[in-house]
Design a protein that fits this description.
Length: about 100
């Protein structure tokens, strides 16, 4: 069986207009890469539709170290985001080549 390394996946779900600003901030925190996908849903905040882009939210997934993942969650919990739909949570993942995910 191949050896694996435990890393942390951070998932951020937010309004689409925050996507680029968040990705820029996450790069400054030290991420190497990310995956974004369009999504929609309902939770604490009201669901709304973006008439020009067809989706109201984006899901950002990043596999990184636990320290960087915690920094991302802390960033998303800033008071300036309190009135917006943004959530961030962590999952433990195992990868075979950690160098693909961390700098």
């Amino acid at each position: 069986m191949a050896t694996t390394t435990e890393l942390t996946k951070v998932i951020v779900i937010t309004e689409t207009h925050f996507e680029q600003d968040l990705l820029n901030a996450f790069r400054e925190l030290g991420i190497k890469g990310f995956t974004c996908m369009n999504c929609w849903g309902q939770g604490h905040h009201q669901v709304y539709d973006e008439p020009f882009i067809g989706h109201s939210q984006t899901r950002i997934e990043i596999i990184t170290t636990e320290a960087i993942a915690e920094s991302i969650v802390d960033y998303c919990r800033q008071p300036r985001f309190e009135s917006y739909a943004i959530s961030a949570y962590l999952e433990s993942v195992r990868v075979r080549d950690p160098n693909k995910f961390i700098a």
